[in-house]
Amino acid sequence: MITIEGLQKHYGDIKAVDGIDLEIQDGEIFGLLGPNGAGKTTMISMISGVLRPDSGRITFDGQNIWVEPKKVKRNLGVVPQEIAVYEDLTAKDNLDFWGSLHGLRGPGLKKAVHEALERVGLQDRARDRVKTFSGGMKRRLNLCMGLLHHPQYLLLDEPTVGIDPQARLAILDIVREVAAAGTTVLYTTHYMEEAQELCDRIAIIDHGQILTIGTLEALTRQSGESEMLKVVGNFDEASANQRLSGISGLRLIRVEAGAVLAGIDASGPGLLEILPQVLESGLSIDDVSIQKPNLQSVFISLTGRELRD
Ligand SMILES: Nc1ncnc2c1ncn2[C@@H]1O[C@H](COP(=O)(O)OP(=O)(O)O)[C@@H](O)[C@H]1O
Ligand SMILES: [Mg+2]
User: Fold this and answer.
1) Contact present, 183 and 154 (Cβ < 8 Å)
2) CA of 87 to the centre of ligand 1 (A)
3) Do 2-219 and 224-292 share a fold?
4) Is 40 near ligand 1, meaning CB less than 6 Å away?
5) 3-class DSSP state of 277
6) CA-CA distances (angstroms) from residue 261 to 221, 229, 231, 234, 291?
7) Is the CB of 34 under 6 A from ligand 1?
8) Is the CB of 14 under 6 A from ligand 1?
9) Disulfide-capable partner of 140 in 66, 120, 201, 260 (CB 3.0 to 4.6 Å)?
10) Rounded Cα–Cα distance for residues 280 and 161 (Å)
11) Considering just the CA atoms, what is the radius of gyration of the chain in Å?
């Protein structure tokens, strides 16, 4: 179990991480979801023992990484946000080098490199220089380096940024396999779809703080809405506010000129009663769409902003 208590890191006035408490259970894939600048990299750097916290405690099965760094790091695989491979070396040479830094040698190293390359599907390209690789292949190699020594804990910082959808799916599959084999995974992302598809539990973070935490189901239920309504048309913000705000059971989440996002209260009169009132509100409406609540709507409910790429 990873236990984080009172974790804090400030840069001058910027509260990059501002008092985080978190427990990550063995074997789970835990997602840290937040927009750019939320504090994800700062957090993962402190958890992986690279960046010293201003205050707080981080323990892995009771062992404090800042007190016994060598001992803890042996069980830790880290995949940084910035790809950390040598472009002029082959994939295999990168892994040999990385493995030797982790104390692997001889047949043990050979086996680990072979297995890791196989796991990420790069065995055929082992002897090619990394600079000939696609973005997705570099990401997979980056992931490989975190897996080489079969860590008990794997920390991944936005491992799919900048690659195509197919390469992204390949990475998500590898993470699932690694977790299914018993590794505890901490996964940061700003893609809500990834958090939704991959993670057993999710913490939504913004401005260095946890806004909410739970399973996908719990988070969407907690938002208190049964459906989300998106109304698009030719209207201004003031008239949308005026004409929609009186409708009982409709919670306006974001109102702007031409577009309104609203939630249908799970405990209210329901969509069938509310929809006609919206359509007859007198607004010039072009389109109404209905969605199940998802992490996007949870995020908007909590912050009033959209979680964008
Ligand atoms: N070395 C640093 N010096 C000053 N500010 C920093 C530094 N690293 C991060 N920050 C600031 O801390 C906040 C969190 O950054 P970061 O942890 O990189 O967020 P994320 O990974 O979620 O995008 C941002 O406002 C960022 O500008
Ligand atoms: Mg980051």
Assistant:
1) yes
2) 26
3) no
4) yes
5) helix
6) 18, 6, 6, 15, 11
7) yes
8) yes
9) 120
10) 44
11) 23
Give the nearest ligand 1 atom to 208 CA: 14
Q: Is 45 in the pocket of ligand 1 (CB under 6 A)?
A: no
The pair of structure tokens assigned to 232 is 């698009």
Question: Does the beta carbon of 38 lie inside 6 Å of ligand 1?
Answer: yes
pLDDT tens profile 18-47: 999 999 999 999 999 999 999 999 999 999
- Each domain of the chain, given as residue ranges in start order, spans 2-219, 224-292
Helix or strand holding residue 83 (H, E): none
Contact (CB, 8 A) for 175 and 163 = no
CB distance 309 to ligand 1 below 6 Å: no
The edge-to-edge listing of strands for the beta sheet with 76-79 is 76-79, 153-157, 184-189, 29-33, 201-206, 209-214
Q: Count Cβ atoms below 10 Å from residue 271 Cβ, excluding itself.
A: 16
pTM metric for this prediction:
0.87
Question: Dihedral of the CA atoms 124, 127, 132, 133 (nearest 10)?
Answer: 50
Q: Read off the tokens for 210.
A: 């946890």
Beta-carbon-side half-sphere exposure of residue 70 (alpha carbons within 13 Å): 2
128 vs 20: CA distance, rounded Å: 42
Residue 46 CA, ligand 1 centroid: distance in Å? 12
Confidence (pLDDT) at 82: 87
List the structure tokens of 163: 């690659």
Name the residue type at position 37.
G
- Report the topology of domain 224-292: Alpha-Beta Plaits (3.30.70)
Task: For domain 2-219, give the CATH number.
Answer: 3.40.50.300
Asked whether the predicted pLDDT for residue 166 surpasses 60, the reply is yes
Round to whole Å and give the CA distance between 277 and 175. 46
For 58-79, write each residue's pLDDT tens digit.
999 999 999 999 999 999 999 9
